[in-house]
Amino acid sequence: MRACHRLKATRDFRRVFQRGRSAATARFVLYWWTPPRAETFRVGISVSKKVGKAVVRNRVKRLVREAFQRLEPELETCRADFVVVCRPPSADADFADVLEDLSKLLRRAKFVV
After folding, report:
1. Given strand 21-24, what is the order of strands in its sheet?
2. Is residue 104 part of a domain?
3. Can you tell me the distance from the alpha carbon of 23 to that of 30, in angstroms, rounded to the nearest whole number?
4. Which of 24, 38, 98, 110 could lock 79 by a disulfide, CB 3.0 to 4.6 Å apart?
5. What's the chain look like in SS3?
6. Of 10, 91, 19, 23, which is closest to residue 54 (Cα–Cα)?
7. In this predicted structure, what is the pLDDT of residue 59?
8. How confident is the model over 99-108, as pLDDT tens digits?
9. In a domain, 56, yes or no
């Protein structure tokens, strides 16, 4: 995922949590907020230690980043900040499951048709 699509600052995460909306599946919770002067979409990923040890958490983050890369053509016109919170069942998910769940959440949020 390109640097312009990454959400890194703590204040940006906090803003999405406080002002945004959310949708959830068993594996993920998607928070989103549309800032007034956004140029493109940005994604932040939060994985708790409850998900697993560092190797597992990093694997889940890589899968989520790859899923957003695959969905990037559909999100090109989107101007929102997203935060994906990974739940413990995401540790056992393969890429197809991650892509399916994130697509479902983005459809529920009406960002992808």
Report:
1. 21-24, 28-33, 81-86, 42-47
2. yes
3. 5
4. 38
5. CCHHHECCCHHHHHHHHHHCEEEECCCEEEEEECCCCCCCCEEEEEECCCCCCHHHHHHHHHHHHHHHHHHHHHHCCCCCEEEEEECHHHHHCCHHHHHHHHHHHHHHCCCCC
6. 91
7. 98
8. 999 999 999 9
9. yes
What would the two tokens of residue 86 be? 């990974």
Our CA angle for 55, 9, 75, nearest 5°, is 80
Quickly count: other Cβ atoms within 10 Å of residue 12's Cβ: 17
- Report yes or no on 113 lying in a domain: no
Size of the chain, expressed as the number of residues it contains: 113
* CA dist., res. 84 & res. 101, Å (int): 11
